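Problem: given the chain below (299 residues), write out its structure.
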Amino acid sequence: MDFIYSIISPQVLSQILVGLSRTVILFIVSSGMSLILGVLRIPNVAHGSLYMIGAYMAFSVSHFFGGSDIGFWLALIGAPLGVALVSLVAERGLFQYLYEREHLMLLLLTFAVSLVFGDLVKIVWGAAYKSVPVPQVFQGFVLLFGNLPFPRYNTFLLVIGPLVAIVLWLIVNKTKIGKISRAAAVDREMVGAVGINVSWVFGIVFVIGCLLAGLGGALVSPTVSVTLGMDHTLIIETFLIVTIGGLGNIWGALLGALIFGLTQSLGILIWPQFGIIFPYAAVVVVLLFRPTGLLKSTW
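Solution.
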């Protein structure tokens, strides 16, 4: 451990860990966006709204159980499933009829849906700030690398991130729906020609991607104030992450989230007043040298 501290100061190491825990949320939400972009070719602006709905649903479930630990775990399950149900209704009711339209039309539709979701959230939960308590099991700190205190909940996020990445990789590469969806992303007409209902394949992929947005909202809810507008900043960050990683590339989303999360965290340490600028500067640098993204785009 002394060797680690001789290379990286405890303050910098702590900021890196904070950046990695932020990266987990960005990756989970961005991977859902990337999955939808890669298969359905939909630039889903409403993705951020579904993330916000996931956070509000997590608040409702947690509040119903009095902020107990069991309420947190049920919120972590119930909020993503609730968002998945909302997205299924939206996809079957609207999006499935517009897959062949121009991207601009799809973009405008998802933007309109995001506005509707924002108003529905205000009607259901009101405009007041909400908070989700950190479960008792994750309160306090753990000592990493010998004597570096780090919040237990952030440590939990560092564990959840790789697990979600592995499960998503297994779904995409080892399951029947994953293989069919990858084939549909390349040639949807051919997939339909062999008797597969492409519309339902798209619907399932859309729901999985939106479920990840809901999971990100549920996971972030104990660390931030749950409020209207929390989707605005995140959707911008998500689009940038997906762009620099490579449109539709899930591992590119992970790489983009790492760049964005770490530069943001270290930027706050280096220049606190302008820390927010660093991740956007990193995006500019990446796009100057790799306009199509760091990894291969599926578009």
